[in-house]
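We modelled each protein-ligand pair independently. The example shown here corresponds to the pyridoxal-5'-phosphate entry; the chain sequence is given first, followed by the ligand as SMILES.
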Amino acid sequence: MQFYSTRDTKRLVSFREAVFRGLAPDGGLFHPASDLDLRSEFLSMTPETTFTEVARTITSALFADELSAQQIDRVITRAFPFRPELSRLTDEIYLLELYHGPSCAFKDYGASYLASVMEEFLAGEDGRAVILTATSGDTGSAVAHAFYGRSNIDVVVLYPSGRVSPLQEKQLTTLGDNIHALEVKGSFDDCQRMVKQAFLDPELSETLRLTSANSINLGRLIPQAFYYVYAFSRLKADVPGELFFCVPSGNFGNLTAGVLAWKWGLPVTGFIAATNANDVVPEYLETGTYSPRSSIRTLSNAMDVGDPSNFERLKTIFSDDVDAMAAMIWGEVVSDEETLETIAHFRVTENVFVDPHTAAGVRAAQRFIANRYPTVGTVITLGTAHPAKFGEVVEEATGMRPDIPERLERVLDLEKKAMPMDNTPGALKEFLLDTFRD
Ligand SMILES: *Cc1c(COP(=O)(O)O)cnc(C)c1O
């Protein structure tokens, strides 16, 4: 498989090049240049098919021309010592729990696979790679954990000061070693813009081997398709009626990966894009006009994105045709008030804690089912973070704090080590050159 930029579909690159460049030189996003047809592979999977087998099937179909079977095995075994769990929340709603990895959020899947792939490509070469990533919270901790201690790779994480949860900040800033945390005075959009500008800076790209680990990186996007297929293989025998996935969305990487799985043959009726008040995509689906704007702060802060970077990929998949996109993706906007109500409701009725992002998804799924009753059979809602990661919000909603998994608890006692930074590209460039130029 080869890949092109969403802005120049003529120049093709390898997976390796796409992974190390992160962003295409023209500012676009790398994307598969041709379609795969894996329908018969997907249909022959059963509830006994393991997550690792799903990962191997898709990885081989995409990358067998660049990685040997042995390398693919190594990449997958190293990447996934954890896997998703499926639980039933209501008659129609299943929760695909994606928070059993090291940082307790779904971004562990993409980050861990990317780290494994890079390690495989870099083995036996000299030269260091510098991963530059902006985070609204969960990306950074997943990336930091995935790359921590890996040889030949440094990670620089930019996060918006005061806008990530206290626990997220600890996860980002306490690892040290090859993980460098920058605390930016500004919003997530500022962080994202600084990173984009660094990648477009000729001096930086000549001096350093800069690469991204954001959801714009193809090596993070692809593995996120695996769990859609896995969830389908687990449930397909008992799913009556139409099957939908509901995806709590911010930068739209997770949803885009699901849409790719559908393009490759996953039999799914459609997707629900659940957003908080940052609703530019639902608005586009309704009006056909895309108006990016500054992000608004909400309780589901990892979804506070005013100009989602993966929107460009979605447009590419649907050939810029809003009607085609709207035939496959439904937007649902969920307020903070509804999010709190939903967290409280499931604590009381099912004795289950959900985090605010997952809660926005569940609320969107409920509304969608009510509006389309009775045709919807099943909505698999992606559980994007462990409730203990957002204990403050969960406590606000329920009066109780969920138990903290041991792997999260450990970081709370460690000391924060972050460098404060102004939100200018110049400040970032100076830091990068000072720290990493030979
Ligand atoms: C990142 C994140 C999201 C949004 O995912 P995108 O791929 O950016 O749309 C939702 N929930 C949580 C907990 C996240 O960390």
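The chain has a mean pLDDT of 94.
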